[in-house]
């Protein structure tokens, strides 16, 4: 009996069948290679970054369109000024796409070094927002503004539960907003 497994199949079921020499029942080597190719890897990071950047531009364009529509409904007294303003808003979208936010390396580096100095001056003290996980706070000294925290592991290791626990601790104990994205 041949089973067709998809990339959504449970790895534990596939693993046990492979170990019992029933690899054909999980689709054979071809299916395993397909699963490997369909799995997200760091090699795809550039294309994921491009998708995120393009979606951000689309969200900004929606905001610009809404701003233009609102101001248009107010019936501006000087139509030429309104059109110039609207054109400027639209052209700003293109400028963001081409150059992004460019800062001298000194500005963000100074902030990072100041954070390191604060952490070094008070070892073991949480200088950022506590996560609710004592050992993690000792390593990271808490969560800090403008840091992107990526949590990753193999399937079934509790990554989602950990991330949601961290988010719950920060939102409920520190009364701060939290945003989580999950990619599987």
Give a brief rundown of this model:
This protein is mostly helical. The chain has helices at residues 11-19, 28-38, 45-73, 79-99, 106-121, 134-140, 159-173.
Task: Please describe what this structure looks like.
The protein has seven helices and no strands. Helix content is 59%, strand content 0%. It is an all-alpha fold. Helix 3 (45-73) packs antiparallel against helix 4 (79-99). The model has no long low-confidence stretch (mean pLDDT 77). The chain has helices at residues 11-19, 28-38, 45-73, 79-99, 106-121, 134-140, 159-173.
Q: What's the helical proportion of residues?
A: 55-70%
Shape descriptor: extended
Distance between the ends? 29 Å
Topology pattern, helix = H, strand = E: HHHHHHH
- The stretches of 5 or more residues where confidence is low (pLDDT under 50) are none
Number of helices, counting only DSSP H or I runs of 4 residues or more: 7
What is the gyration radius calculated from CA atoms? Answer: 25 Å
Beta-strand content estimate: under 5%
Fill in the keyword field for this structure.
mainly alpha, 59% helix
Give the SSE layout.
Elements: H1 11-19, H2 28-38, H3 45-73, H4 79-99, H5 106-121, H6 134-140, H7 159-173
Helix pairs in contact: 3-4
